[in-house]
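Q: What would this chain look like folded?
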Amino acid sequence: MDKYNIPGVTTFEYTKIVGIENIEFGTNVIIDDFVLIHAKNTIKIGNNVHIACFVSITGGAELEIADFAAISQGCRILTATDDFKNWGFGNSTLDERYRNVKRAPIFIGKFCIVGANSVVLPGVRIGEGATVGACSVVTRDLQPWGVYISNKKIGERDREGVMKTYAKYLEERNKQGYGGS
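A: My prediction, written as structure tokens:
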């Protein structure tokens, strides 16, 4: 069952999208059951993106998920959070003048993978090809093609191998008459 009937996007019975008019969808996108996307502001989801079950995307700031990215099961993409340390109440039942809300855009680059149950906080930019290990909390920008556990870089991703696979993918698509990404 394709709940939302968005061209080029597969959704399911228990996918929940609020503010769909604020979302720009690519093609060959899969948004699994039990995903919640609350789009108060612009969200761009590129081509060949998978958003796995139990992901939530909330906060009200801009978000871009570039082509060939994957957001694994249980991730939280938070474009806004309350600062609980300082003066704010941190309670969404109250007007924002009583809260200390940090709201900032998030960018998840082409070929990125965000591991299961990870949290990406407001204002983060995850560079092209970077991977985030499961159960990470990402609080700052991650450089392209790194392998990260939370904010700590633990290795380099095989950029050359990924790009060879990408070239093969494009070659096969061109043979089939599909063209670009």
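The mean pLDDT is 94.
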